[in-house]
Amino acid sequence: xxxxxxxxxxxxxxxxxxxxxxxxxxxxxxxxxxxxxxxxxxxxxxxxxxxxxxxxxxxxxxxxxxxxxxxxxxxxxxxxxxxxxxxxxxxxxxxxxxxxxxxxxxxxxxxxxxxxxxxxxxxxxxxxxxxxxxxxxxxxxxxxxxxxxxxxxxxxxxxxxxxxxxxxxxxxxxxxxxxxxxxxxxxxxxxxxxxxxxxxxxxxxxxxxxxxxxxxxxxxxxxxxxxxxxxxxxxxxxxxxxxxxxxxxxxxxxxxxxxxxxxxxxxxxxxxxxxxxxxxxxxxxxxxxxxxxxxxxxxxxxxxxxxxxxxxxxxxxxxxxxxxxxxxxxxxxxxxxxxxxxxxxxxxxxxxxxxxxxxxxxxxxxxxxxxxxxxxxxxxxxxxxxxxxxxxxxxxxxxxxxxxxxxxxxxxxxxxxxxxxxxxxxxxxxxxxxxxxxxxxxx
Length: 443
Known about the structure:
Elements: H1 2-12, E1 21-25, H2 30-41, E2 45-52, H3 58-74, E3 78-82, H4 85-92, H5 96-114, E4 119-121, H6 126-139, H7 143-147, E5 152-153, E6 156-157, H8 165-174, H9 191-206, H10 210-239, E7 240-243, E8 246-250, H11 251-255, H12 260-268, H13 275-283, E9 293-295, E10 299-304, E11 307-312, E12 322-324, E13 330-331, E14 337-342, E15 355-359, E16 367-371, E17 377-378, E18 387-388, H14 389-395, H15 400-405, E19 407-410, E20 416-419, E21 423-424, E22 437-442
Parallel strand pairs: 1-2, 1-4, 2-3, 4-6
Antiparallel strand pairs: 5-6, 7-8, 8-11, 9-10, 10-11, 12-16, 13-14, 14-22, 15-22, 16-19, 17-18, 19-20, 20-21
Helix pairs in contact: 4-5, 6-9, 12-13
């Protein structure tokens, strides 16, 4: 019986436990209605959530009324909401399908968290998984697309994913369970319906056990993905490194990896870069000039010598300036610095990347903390000749992203006192004749 198979599937796949509260996504169709009945009969604590997308006029409202009556009959709490989906899709310039999916899952998650449900259960079944597999294959996919829909993905669980559509409808018929039929499911203008009604039936003609064969394939593909993830994880650790919030990808190590294209994709895709960008970067990786930048909506990727470097796009103002008066003792924005006035020459002192000493009487207050700008120069500590900061950054092999994060301490008339974390300016060094010493520490 299907309910016993569902219980076994839940246990085998660790979907949820008996004392977990489950929110069932209830459309009113055969799949979600059967799932609600089965979980209720298996004595799980369940509630239902229904979305009226207002896309099928009277039919949409009748679906909503059906879910109300069903939940009342089963003594199950029902959460419901309506959206003007078409208007929202037009406003956001998205497809109706994508808009409906986003609205649905965002609202489900709100209900789940507000009312302390552990998981959201959907009625996706094996036929859905097969259709998704072929849609992914048609559009182009990696190994994730081959294993298709997961039985458990964070807070989303799919207890019917092993069962065919026929299994579910037979269960409803045997148990005299009524459900609603969405007429749009037969409209072959939708890609999924085209696979469902025109393409996949041909596979079943060729192989009457096509559905069972695909279930076996998914088990194999899922194991492939586990092996793939293990390899990718090990390789990512081998060729990448985080330094000062920048992700460095070692190009030489990447190119000798077993599957470099896939490896690069798995590294940069979480940062919003598309597969087309991945292919372009990899195919031209040796010809890209240092300084070449690629953008996703949230991040930038820089080619810099032997590395690809990823940084989050910041929206800070480049010309932002922070003023420091003579009585300031500590600064916490944009970086943490302390200022201490010494009236006696310390004899021996240590200047490093965290601490410098300056002659107060040579400083023109208020001091400034600002970013680098074109034409900046300084006299590196221990030297008398001027040096452009751009040349200093090049000599120190400081990449563009890192350079953008560097703050400068300057006098009011823009003479550089300290390149924070790198080098002090020789013009403000203390000598045996210095009477007032300023100790500057970064912490």
